[in-house]
């Protein structure tokens, strides 16, 4: 961590929140906070285990991490 307010410190989380908002939050209407919490839990599972990324050689984050540990 560097100085307070440096955007580079939070770039990975800021990127995740931007993607999550466009793919989940703005794409659906939620009836209650509980509905959003359930959908968010499902989205995090999808994001980590199923959503492929070209930057990770066409693998999900978990697949890529496993590949780097075993390879």
Automatic annotation (TrEMBL):
InterPro entries assigned to the protein according to its UniProt record, in alphabetical order: Integrase_cat-core (IPR001584), RNaseH-like_sf (IPR012337), RNaseH_sf (IPR036397), Transposase_IS3/IS150/IS904 (IPR050900)
GO MF annotations, alphabetized: nucleic acid binding
Family matches, as Pfam families: rve_2 (PF13333)
Source taxon at top rank: Bacteria
Boundaries of every Integrase catalytic domain copy: 1-69
Biological process terms in GO annotation: DNA integration
PANTHER family documented for this protein: TRANSPOSASE INSF FOR INSERTION SEQUENCE IS3B-RELATED (PTHR46889), TRANSPOSASE INSO FOR INSERTION SEQUENCE ELEMENT IS911B-RELATED (PTHR46889:SF4)
Protein name, per record: Integrase catalytic domain-containing protein
């Amino acid at each position: 961590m560097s100085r307070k307010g440096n955007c580079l410190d939070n770039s990975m989380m800021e990127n995740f929140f931007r993607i999550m908002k466009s793919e989940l939050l703005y794409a659906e209407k939620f009836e209650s906070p509980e509905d959003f919490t359930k959908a968010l839990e499902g989205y995090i599972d999808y994001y980590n285990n199923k959503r492929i990324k070209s930057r990770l050689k066409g693998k999900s984050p978990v697949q890529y991490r496993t590949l780097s540990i075993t390879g």
